[in-house]
Amino acid sequence: MPKGKGPQGKRITLKVAKNAVRVLFNGRRRLELSKMGIAIFPKCLLELADVEEIDLSRNMLRKIPNTIEKFQNLMWLDLHSNQIDELPAAIGTLQNLTFLNLCNNKLTTKGLPEELTLLKNLRTLNLGLNCLETIPTTLGTLKELVELGLFDNSLTIIPKSVKKLPKLERLNVKRNPLPEFAEEDEPIDTVKRIESLYLVEKKDLCNSCLQTCQGERDELHKLEDLTPGPSDKPSFPSLTTPNSTAIDNQEEWRMK
């Protein structure tokens, strides 16, 4: 490997890129180069700068060049699951962009350029699974945002300007150290501790098991006697409960 250079990844030729263009049902042309082992943005893609959608997800990209500004028809850009640590200022020139997925990269707060707020038509922005410690308050200028993903970062606060975006319907901030979203301890549900409940007749138990079950039942009756108020629970004198074990999943118990 040449000194000072990172991994080159797979080389994408213009022929390969042209064969990767798909026409969608809505008439848009999508350049699909996901999972191709690409480490450097291929220059040959500039020959296809009139496409409306680009999928470069699941590659090894570290940088997006300023030449991205050549893709002025771009409405949909998927860059998730790469190694991108910063966006170029030229990203703000993509005025037709409505969808931008940057999930699962290495973006920091410094890696988000101010020009990102120029994407006035952006409806979906996914910044989840990155290295963000803060979110620029200027993201509150993206008035068309409907969906914003900020999950799995290191955020301790969400700016009010972002929370109050007029069209925002889905805001995912899960798994961030946000005080206002701290979950309270769930109350203990005794039902969740039961996996199986077996009802059998006394005649089907050996003497040892029968004595054990009767002893446990007597202990339960003593506890009931200490509880004030009448009991409405039905009684099954010919049935006993020989054993039960614990489980944390109530739904699984119910299915059984």
TrEMBL record:
Ranges annotated as biased composition (Polar residues): 237-248
Question: SMART domains from the entry?
Answer: LRR_TYP
Q: Which InterPro entries match?
A: Leu-rich_rpt, Leu-rich_rpt_typical-subtyp, LRR_dom_sf, LRR_domain-containing
Q: Could you name the domain of life of the organism this protein comes from? A: Eukaryota
Gene3D superfamilies in UniProt: Ribonuclease Inhibitor (3.80.10.10)
Locate the region Disordered.
Answer: 221-256
User: Would you tell me the Gene Ontology cellular component terms?
Assistant: cytoplasm
User: Pfam families annotated for this entry?
Assistant: LRR_1 (PF00560)
Keywords in alphabetical order, please.
Leucine-rich repeat, Repeat
Keyword Metal-binding annotated: no
This one is known as LRC18 protein
Species of origin reads Promerops cafer (Cape sugarbird)
